[in-house]
Amino acid sequence: MAVKVIGLMELSDQTAFEQYRSQVGKTVEQYKGSIEHRGEITEVFWNELSIQAFSAFVELHFPSKEDAHTWAYSPEYQSLVAIRNQAMRLTLFGVAI
Asked: Which of 33, 75, 83, 90 is the most buried (most CB within 10 A)?
């Protein structure tokens, strides 16, 4: 079963974000994934879960839950976490499709 990985981001450092963004795609592709969509949030219609503010999102696609999990915990992706933490706050979750 394929999985979409959704990231909700609140950007804090544009320079660090560009550095992260220039490298993260290679890690996704290495684990059979692809970046499907990126964008800015234009409006939040409801926030009944009271999640923190976010200004951007990313949608990744992986062939399976296992591929998504392996990518998220891979040494290649983990090596970007320090840059990611400087660039943004992130909520990342998988959705079975």
From this structure: 33
